[in-house]
Automatic annotation (TrEMBL):
Coiled coil: none annotated. SUPFAM superfamilies: NIF3 (NGG1p interacting factor 3)-like (SSF102705). A divalent metal cation 2 binds at H64. This is GTP cyclohydrolase 1 type 2 homolog. Belongs to the GTP cyclohydrolase I type 2/NIF3 family.
Length: 270
């Protein structure tokens, strides 16, 4: 399958139009006319990922976090970032990144993680967006559907402590950080994967508890004093299942080899 054909399908599923303005998504490295037989999915394009891709003769890496995020003035072997980019280009490995458009898309990462929790209730898309947009690769108009956050309104309340255990079991993680009383009852659960604290104030009056990653001390302290409940799932922990989601979505149109790469957590517990 040609890379440009894959890009057309990914544009349909995860429209770049719903990515944040500051984001950098799409084909970041590569020749879109190349044939793609092997794809590797990852959260971050680390040096280990690049070496794995070289060893496995990968044609395309699909990452969640963009391998090129802000302006580059030079690419040299003097930095780890430069070395990665040089190796990718020297080995003709393309990189396509799907970041906030993967989070916000219908059946994207926010939906995938919320559904993983297997909670009974109605799922609401906060700040829902529906519009038609032109797909320049397929050369046709397509319907785009997304939203910034997900809210699950449970059929019946549950204790925060039980929700914490559900999160750990469902996502396969050993711990979460939280602000609030474990014995408090919650019914309306908000979720934004990754570092989604900037969305907290937008939906605070619509939820009982907010799930995200990368919560800062003063954000947590303010929430505690305001009587709010927060759960810091972890940035990595809330997004590493991106690789599972991508395998599921790409298997619908790609019949080549697909490899899921799970990097180790960045932070270790001492």
């Amino acid at each position: 399958m040609k890379l440009w054909e894959i890009m057309g399908e990914l544009h349909t599923i995860f429209s770049p139009r719903i990515a944040e303005d500051w984001d950098n998504v799409g084909l970041l490295i590569g020749d879109n006319t190349r044939e793609v037989n092997k794809v590797l999915f990852c959260l971050d394009v680390t040096e280990k990922v690049v070496q794995k891709a070289i060893d496995k003769n990968i044609d395309l890496i699909i990452s969640h976090h963009p391998v090129i995020f802000s302006g580059l003035k030079r690419i040299t072997n003097e930095t780890s970032h430069g070395r990665k980019l040089l190796k990718l280009m020297e080995n003709r490995i393309a990189v396509y990144s799907i970041h906030t458009n993967a989070d916000f898309a219908i059946n994207g990462l926010n939906d995938f993680i919320m559904d993983k929790l297997n909670l009974d209730g109605e799922k609401i898309i906060y700040n829902e967006q529906k519009f038609d947009d032109y797909n320049p690769i397929k050369r046709k108009m397509e319907h785009v559907h997304g939203g910034l956050a997900r809210i699950k309104v449970l059929n019946k309340t549950m204790k925060l402590g039980d929700l914490l255990e559900r999160i750990k079991d469902s996502l396969g993680i050993s711990y979460v950080r939280y602000v609030g009383d474990k014995n408090a009852y919650v019914r309306k659960i908000g979720l934004v994967t990754g570092g989604g604290s900037s969305f907290l104030h937008d939906i605070a009056d619509k939820i009982d508890v907010f799930l995200t990653g990368d919560l800062r001390y003063h954000e947590a302290l303010d929430a505690l004093e305001d009587g709010k409940i927060l759960v810091d799932v972890g940035h990595f922990e809330s997004e590493y299942l991106f690789v599972d989601m991508m395998e599921k979505e790409m298997s619908k149109f790609f019949d080549g080899e697909m490899i899921r790469y799970f990097e180790e957590e960045v932070f270790k517990l001492g």
